[in-house]
Each structure stands twice: as C-alpha cells, then as structure tokens.
Give the backbone structure.
Amino acid sequence: MADLLVVGTGLIGTSVGLALRGQSDVVLSDLSAADLAVAVERGAGRAWDGEEAFAHCLVAASPSAVVSVVRRLADRSGTFSHVASVQRAVQDDLAGSGVDLARVCGSHPMAGKEQSGPTAASASLFAGRPWVLCPSGQTSPGALAAVRDLALACGAEPVELTAEQHDAAVARVSHLPQVAASAVAAVLAAQGEELALAGPGLQDTTRIAASDPALWVEVLRQNAAAVAPLVRELSRELAIAADALDRADPAAVEDLLRRGNAGRRLVPRKRGEHDRDFVVVPVAVPDSPGQLAGVLASAAQAGINVEDVRVEHLPGRPTGVIELLVHLSAQAQARTALAAAGWDVVGG
Amino acid sequence: MADLLVVGTGLIGTSVGLALRGQSDVVLSDLSAADLAVAVERGAGRAWDGEEAFAHCLVAASPSAVVSVVRRLADRSGTFSHVASVQRAVQDDLAGSGVDLARVCGSHPMAGKEQSGPTAASASLFAGRPWVLCPSGQTSPGALAAVRDLALACGAEPVELTAEQHDAAVARVSHLPQVAASAVAAVLAAQGEELALAGPGLQDTTRIAASDPALWVEVLRQNAAAVAPLVRELSRELAIAADALDRADPAAVEDLLRRGNAGRRLVPRKRGEHDRDFVVVPVAVPDSPGQLAGVLASAAQAGINVEDVRVEHLPGRPTGVIELLVHLSAQAQARTALAAAGWDVVGG
C-alpha cells in the first residue's frame, strides 16, 4: 500500500511528489499520459497501476473533478484532500454527493507561479508558504491530520480556516488584485498608445494581467459572492478620486494616497524585499560569462555576506550592473574590498 | 566658467553630477547645506560660489522653483532645463513670466527609486532609461541640444515629445497605476483584516501604494486633466466587472481578462524579466557567507553563462535557495555540472 496517491501531475501535484521524495511512497495518476510520464521521469513518484491502495489521496486536478475522484476511489483510500483555490463551492459539491464527508478535508497551498505543468514543478514550491486547511463540520480529526502532515512534509506552514474565511481572504489577497491589474491593463490597451516610457511602477502593477483568462474566469465565478463587493468598492474609490481630480480637491486625493499607504503596510514583505538595514553596492561589469562569479568571489574572500544579488542588463549595451545587497554595517568594507580587487564599483 | 550648474542636489540632481564625473565641470547648489555637502562629498561636483557663470543650468528642484531660478540666473547661464514630472504646467508658468523662452527646454528623465535624497543617488540611475525632451514652440535649437547632450552624457536615451504628449504618456504609465495601486491598498485597509496569505500578486500590485502622498498629490493636481479620464474609465471597467460577477456572466469577465492580457503585452519588459528561452536552475544552500560565490564559481568553471540570479531566503529556516537563470540550451549541462561539483540542485 502506498502512502499517497496524487491525482493530477500538474505544477502542484508534481511539486508535492518532488517535495516528498525520500519521505513517502507516492503514486501518481493523470488523464494525460505525457504529463504523468514527465512527473515520473522527474522523480515525483511511481505511476499508479489503477489497483494499489493508499493511505491518503490528494486531488490536485480541476475542482470540478473532486467529487468524482472521491466517489471512485472511496474503496482504495483512507482519507482525501484537494487543493481548490475556492473552497466553499467544492464543499457544497461534496455535501450534495453522498460521499463520506468525514474522510475529506479541503486544503489550498498558497504557492504557484506563472508557468504551469509538471516541467515547472519544484520540490521547494511550498517551502515557507502558507497551506490553508479547510475542514468542514463533518471532517474527521484523522482526515485533517493527514493533510496537515502532508503540508508539513512539503515544508509549508499549515493554517486552519473555515471555507468562508479562506474564500474571503483569497478574494482580498488574490482575486481583487487580479481584477484590478486586468482592468488597468485593459484601460491602457483601449488607449491604443505606446507605453515605451513605462518603468517598474506600471510593470509591477500589471504583471498578473498576463494570467490565463480561462483559469481565472472559473475562479472568479466560484468566488463571485466574495469578490464582487470588493471590486465594486474599488470602482467607487476610483470614481471619487476622478471627481476629486476634476474639481481640484487635493485633500480628497491625499486622503486616498494616505489610506493606500496604510493598506500597503498590511501587506507582508515579499521574499527578496529587504528592510532598511540593507544597502545596494552596484558594480559595473562587461556582459560576459564569469563576471558575476568573480565579483562574488571577491566579496566572499573579503568576508562580506551578500544577502541578495541582482543583475541589471542595460538594453543594447555591452555592459551590465551587478547589484549586491549587503548589510549597512558592511557597506564601506564591501566597496573598499571590491575596488581593491579591481572591480568598477559605481557611484563611490 | 563651469559647464553645468545643478540646482537641487536631491536624488536626480546628485545622480546627474555623479554620472558626469570626469566628463564635465559641474557646480552644485541647494537650499539645504546638508544635502549640498553630501553631494559634494560623494563627488557630484563643486559647491557653486554664487558668482561663477556656467554654460547650462539644470533645475532639479521643485517645479514651482523653475521660473524664479531661470529669472535669477539669466545673466550667468547660457541655457536652462528642468526635470518636472508634469511639463505643461511649468511651460505655462514660464510663458507668463517674461523670461527668455528661447533659452529654456523642459525635460523629464524617466528614472527614480523609492528612496530620495543625495545619499540614494547613483551614477547609473539614468543608464538605458528614456529622458524625455519637451521643447516649447519658443525653445531654440541650442537649448534643445544642450539638454539632449546632457541626457546622452548621463547614459540615458533622449526622446523628444511635446509637453502634451509627455503629460498624456506619464498619465498612462505612471499616474494611473499610482492611483490604482493606492485604491486597491485603500480598499484592503478598509477591510481591517490580516493579509497573511498574500503572495507576489498582491505584493507587486500594491508596491507603489507606499509612495509619498505629499509628492504625489502635487503631481496628480498638475496633471489632473490627463489623469482624471483614465481613472474614471478604470472605475467604469470595474463597475462593469462587479455587475458581471453578480449576475454570473462569465463572458463579460473573460472579456476583461483578455483585454488585460492585450494591455499587458504593450508594457515593455522590465529589466530583470526574461523571455521563455531562459530557465531557472534552483540550488539549495546553507544560509552562510560565500555560498553564492561558490555556486557561481562552479557555474563559471563549467562555462555556463548565468543570465541572472536570485536568492530566496526561506523565513525562519537555516537554508536558502539560489536560483540561477540560464539559457534553455545550457540547462542540462548546468544541472549536471553543479551536481558534480557537490551542490544540491533542486528538483533534478
């Protein structure tokens, strides 16, 4: 008997298999033989033979498949979970389906990327990320424990919420920003003008406007009750702002900007963003192999801990700038050591 | 006689001085003796003695100061430019002031950062960025050439636009995204709920909501005529989306998402974003000095060109993941060479 069957070897399912490698005996299943083959080849688990039993089943396929999978595999699995990005709708489907609700616990790992499919999967996808557990009133302690253990084994941080709490939270942190980014980009598209002057502000604000419409229309449909009031409130804020601009009312505009500051402070810091104790040391280098390694080797030799590094390629130029992030206390030493090693430290 | 007087040694003025070091004789002036001292100390130029003449004067101070500076220094400078983020208002101020308009050319370097002041200045701030030149109908060829030469000497790409074209363009690429990000964050602040589940989508969409309200209220006031219609159109799109969600009209929601895709395709790629020919090779490392240098040295020894690199620190864990971006054609070789050198290549 296997420890786990993963149904659906896309980004999430394959990443779960990779994260559990060496910890659990995982079998895999997918309607696509090609995706299944990639997941097996990458080491996410064994192909399920259609007969073997397993302790737990994770449905990492479309939310609409959850009920039929649970019904079909009820004899082979102990407990079930799924990874639907809207929980209430799946819980309702299950409640009306006649399956044994005690054995099922919904869940939602808050991890993803712009790419999809088993080739984009990674053992570290869930590391340090929240994994929401959404037991229903009928979920047994054993079913909840099974998905909690799974989340922990993947390196995630389990967070228990009701389906309603989860759906309201993702409406705020994920679905509202998606609609807003799409709407900003749609307004710009309608202008029919070049955006060549765009800088990082527009680029960040519209990044998720590139998301897959087919996937998102389904997510938004399922969570419409939570998302629509937020979208309407955003529309109202913007109508008030437009009126304030028209009648030259700076106090109203400033009020919006200040409330925006307050909201931004509620957003947890992104991995890769750093506090004010870190400073950038920029080094100009020719754009050729080995420069990055050379700069970092010089820093390491001087005992400088480089917290982060970014490479800025200048369009159409044969040079780039390597930005090293170091602690404020190490800034002077880093600049001196890198310059002494012959590097072109910028703005010194 | 100096080549250039920079009035205002904030982020932009000091960065101009640093970029011109070794190319031009730059004198500096600022109402703040402390800021001036930092700029001189950093090597941006000499402190202006209040008497010396100069070929060109760049007003890198508040837009409201432009007229008085031009009037006061008319006897000492050949030509003038400024760096106002809204051009029409300054052009109107100048036109009504009685100064010699032939000697003045507005301009706007499209560069900045979240920090301000001379300590944040950098010689590479303008490298590869657009620098908009906005001559009025009265601007002489000599005044236009002076600011064009200045932009080129700073490593920027000069782009000539009318004040109206400039103001309409920044309304789209900068002012609309600012209002949108502030409004999204303001809606979230009003919810009064934790945003602990937030991922990169919300973080990117609201990043510029942290901007300085005092500065932005002035920019938005000056460009209200161009910004208000865009904000109103955004409000309208969102009202339609909220209605479509309420009445479960997936076609209308999908239409918005698809137009968002189209708009996003118009946004130029950010420095540090890469096309689909590049893939990530993740390497798990202990979070201690020298790991980054070691991984990159191994890549360099194997002849792998690392296009970009990112360090992911996992909160509360003693390890991190270094993500190397390499060309698709080098992926297999990079994974093999790094594993052979003893590194923990993830998901292999």
